[in-house]
Amino acid sequence: MGYTKRFDGRKFDELREVEAKVGIIPRADGSAMFRIGKTVALAAVYGPKELYPRFMQNPQQGILRCSYNMMPFSSKGERVRPGQNRRAKEISYVTEKALRPVVDLSQFPNAVVDVFIELPQTDAGTRCAGITAAAMALADAGLTMKDLVCSVAVGNIDGTIVTDLMYDEEAYKDGPVADIPIAMIPSTGEITLLQLDGEISKDLLVKAIREAKAACLKINQIQRQALKQKYVK
Amino acid sequence: MLNFLAQGRRLDGRNKDEFRKIEITPNISVNAEGSAGVKIGETEVYAGVKMSVDKPYPDIPDEGVLMTGAELYPLSSPEFEPGPPSIQGIELARVIDRGIREAGAINTKELCIRAGEKVWMVMVDIVTINDAGNLFDASGIAAGVALKNAVFPKIENDIVEYGTKTDKKLPLKELPVSITVIKIGEHYLVDPTTEEEKMLDARLTVAVRGDGAICAMQKGGNMPVTEEDISAMVDLAMEKAKEVRGMLP
Fold first, then answer.
1. N or C: which end of chain B has fewer CB within 10 A?
2. What is the CA radius of gyration of chain A?
3. What domains does chain A contain, in order, with CATH numbers?
4. Is residue B140 part of a domain?
């Protein structure tokens, strides 16, 4: 009974293999790649630059604009039609909310910083990979930030809390599943993204968040290493 | 730039007929039926193939469909805007699509499962990762390599089981190599950078088959070209097509 052994043999609190690289898109002001298992996210940052149309400008401080997109051939299933669907729009929106608290745009009134996230291949955890890549890209763009943001999905699979779900786990059929993407500011432990779909008890939820925080810190190490690799010679 | 060109040099030190380094990475996306990444210098594009089973078009009931699309991602250049495809993106897609189609890359009759009922739809999508000039040639190479390593997914009762790939490759015959030559003043250049593209008077993309035949062309740019221009640009394109073909996996 229950989910006693993971499909790919990982420990319950173990991340898939992760890889990060900063500065992958020379035309961008900042860029990064983050891979976790078979999920790959590319992120590019452009700005700060003046925002048009002007009515969207904020004279108090700059705004952050995020765009999440799966490449047409990236999905395990059918081709993803180009153009943002409802899902992509919502993920773009929560991504912006996840990143905004760490970026200081007070010196850039009327300006915008654009973040573009593209996924060439996916195996669950795409929004988390996107946020993790985007945080590195923002740092690479030289923006003032109080910290990075790191992100991972945790979940409840039939009573077991697991870290970094892959697709087959999200699709587990023999019991209740909850998928919980979480993003965290590592220095404070504050959560900037929290979503959940599925079924979980309050006790397990608390445990899941604790696991997510521990995993986020590991991801943060990888982010820092990747940034150092580009900037510390 | 014109002073440099008059001395036979380019801003990045290349000769006028010299490509930047071409790097080809097959299988950049595991979920695609076939895929490739191509770098020419700092320019980088991905191409991926997705296949599905659908009803044939009524006018060609025994033929499958091969289509090529392209998107200029705002991720890849400050000059590309989010939103519906720009005319530049549409032109890129159509030029690559035409090259593949007119080369006779694939016999679409072999994509038929049951005439009038079920056929394979093969979709090639090209996306830009970094635009440092010459997206046309990079896209052409990427689309070609992605098609070459594409395999059919398994089907059961006309439903595609995307997780399971077969070892059956696409029935490919001939792939073109597209080379773009630009004209700045009196100079003809291959593999233009973004700066050179901004200066161009005219542009000619030539798709060349393996036997040296030309199978598609597209002139771009605001200035007209003469017969002599065309002849010289096509010569250069054909010579480079041979060279690039030799580098393909």
1. C
2. 18
3. 18-228 (3.30.230.70)
4. yes
